Amino acid sequence: MVGAKITIKFLCSYGGKIVPRYPDGKLRYYGGETRVLAVDRSIPFSELLVKMGEMYGSAVSLRCQLPTEDLDALVSITSDEDLANLIEEYDRVASPPSSIKI
């Protein structure tokens, strides 16, 4: 589809805390709110922050969980480059493995 916008969705949690889960101690997010924000995947970082700020009613900072990591390794997103790298990492994990046939 030429000219079609490709949307990505962020599952955004705020107002809670990251706490150890009983009994295994694995970290989890507790309390607060969780919302889904759908945006065009080419959105600039500054515009993403504005949209998130509008959703939450205040200024935000963005930290994300990489698809292969736990909550103890959140990554700060502070620029267009960081956002592009995050999207690329999720694309890499989501794409089916390529197989080579001989």
UniProtKB/TrEMBL annotation:
It holds the Pfam family PB1. Residues 22-102 form the PB1 domain. It comes from the Eukaryota. SUPFAM superfamilies: CAD & PB1 domains. InterPro entries: Gynoecium_Dev_Regulator, PB1_dom. This is PB1 domain-containing protein.
